[in-house]
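Take a protein:
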Amino acid sequence: MSQLILVLNCGSSSLKGAVLDKETGDVLLSCLGEKLGLPDAYITFKVNGQKEKVELTAEPNHTGAVGAMLDKLKAMGLESQIAAIGHRVVSGGELYSDSVLIDDNVIAAIEKCIPLAPLHNPANLLGIYAAQNIFKGLPNVAVFDTAFHQTMPEHAYIYAVPRRLYRELGLRRYGFHGTSYRFVATEAARFLGKDINDSRFVVAHLGNGASVAAIRNGKSVDTSMGITPLEGLVMGTRAGDIDASVYEFLADNLNLSVKEVTNLLNKQSGLLGISELSSDCRTIEEEAIKGHEGAKLALEIFSYRLAKYVASMAVAAGGIDALVFTGGIGENSDIIRAKVLNYCSFLGFEVDEQANLAARFGKDGIITTADSKVPSVVIPTNEELMIAQDTARLSGL
């Protein structure tokens, strides 16, 4: 009988889940719980491409969503095969450089890191409590977004502010998307036939949240996100890098509080703010093709800022053996990939237009010509598989 791993990724009002076979990595069940905490909460299951929506009327919260997963597993005859639960946890601060079995001390540590991820860590804890309550006695494992970046050197993560703020408050660059970077770097080395212990990759994880990292010899040496996921690239609704004095400027001129400015920069900016259309890259690309000026400008700024970061990450990596695109936008937007590679042509990239068009919808592939001095490759990420593998390893399965 196969041993199955349940993977949970909880947001404040959502829950993404997947059940994976420990041996093959196959996904037997996936789900998305939405509007958790509201009366009309529901969860949608997907099995073999077929979807089923279940209302969570009786318990419209994370516990109800996890309970509905258990009911679905029972209906499929799989509940007895769940051997462990893996949880995505956004911030472990400096406390964890690897995944860890969850106990009371780990829960206390996740709580301690709430100021570093106030939107994410409380939601991650809700998922942990729900899993412990519903799947009693099974091991739970925390897989931290920040852990992979704990190998960054001090000169990469320290901000140019009074150092006592680091000592007293933990004010430093932490970075995120670490689980994705760990998977993609390993897969890129395999795909390109390189020894990961002798490699220099720049990886762009592009989705609604977007970041880029320099990975040398399989270890993170720099990344664009900071103490929070707001710093760095232009994103779906996040501004990315911006003059810190903007806080005072907007507060004075618009009579906003610090929290209101933070909300504006996190939820009303980025592609949405520039285009004045949408935060969805697909919509923006469609409208840009039709000639919409805001959409065209949003794509250009997104690509230009990313290209500048790619060049800077090549410095951090000590060179560049490959530029890797991943994440929803990175895997599917041939338009943005081509723009970035053209901006970075001085580094030796030359776009293969046909290969770039072909690398979509979960397909990996080299998207530069054979004459390029440096290759660029698309590698689909699989954070769920990484979480499942860590969970199996730490649970002794």
Remarks:
- The first strand starts at residue 4 and ends at 10.
